[in-house]
Amino acid sequence: MTPDVVRPSDLTVEPLLGPEQLGSLEADATADGRNMVTRLIAEWLDGKNRFTLAGERAYVARIGDRICAVGGLNRDPYARDATIGRVRRLYVAVEDRRRGIGTAIIDRLLSDACGTYSWLHLRTHDVGAAAFYEAIGFEPVRENAECTHRRVVASIRENRP
C-alpha cells in the first residue's frame, strides 16, 4: 500500500459466504460497466466456481456493515501447473477505490497462497486495473492471451513491493 493511503479503520476482509451478499456490489459494478461481480455470482450459482477446491478462497471487504469489494483465488486453469494460482473477479466499489481496499484483499490472497502456489496470475485489459496491480508488485506478461500480470508468492513480508 502506498504511504499516503489510509485504510478505513473499520475495514474487514472476511470469507465470501455466498452470492446473496453481493447484490449492492453487483449493482455498483454494473453501473460502472463491469461484469466481474455478475460473472462471479453466475459461476457460483451454476457450481462452476465456488472457490472450494484446495488452495482456493474468496473474500469480501466490508466497511462497517457495507460490502465494498470482492475477490478470489483459484488454481489457474490456464497454466497447467498446480503451483500457479489465479486472482479472480476482484472488484472494489467506485466510491471506495484508492483507499487500500483492493490491496487488503490481495494481501489476504497472497497470505493464503503461501505454501500452495508459487506464482499468482491474472488477466485484465483495464488500464486502471493494470496500474493498480503493477503498483502492488505484479509484473506485466507479454504475449500470453490468458495472463497479463503475474507475481511470485513469497512470505507476506517479501510480498510488499
CATH class: Alpha Beta
Q: What proportion of the residues form beta strands (DSSP E)?
A: 25-35%
- Characterize the overall form: globular
Into how many domains do the coordinates divide? 1
User: In terms of per-residue confidence, which ranges show pLDDT below 50 for 5 or more consecutive residues?
Assistant: 156-160
CATH-defined topology: Aminopeptidase
Radius of gyration: 15 Å
Fold and architecture overview:
By secondary structure, the chain is α+β, with helices and mostly antiparallel strands. It has helices spanning 23-31, 36-45, 101-113, 127-135, and strands at residues 11-15, 57-63, 66-75, 84-92, 119-122, 139-140, 149-152. The chain has one domain (11-152): Aminopeptidase. The chain has 4 helices and 7 strands. Strands 1-2-3-4-5-7-6 form a 7-stranded mixed sheet, with helices on both faces.
Short structural description:
The chain is an alpha+beta fold and 161 residues long. The protein has four helices and seven strands.
Keywords:
Aminopeptidase, 7 strands, alpha+beta, globular, 161 residues
What is this structure's SSE topology?
Elements: E1 11-15, H1 23-31, H2 36-45, E2 57-63, E3 66-75, E4 84-92, H3 101-113, E5 119-122, H4 127-135, E6 139-140, E7 149-152
Parallel strand pairs: 4-5
Antiparallel strand pairs: 1-2, 2-3, 3-4, 5-7, 6-7
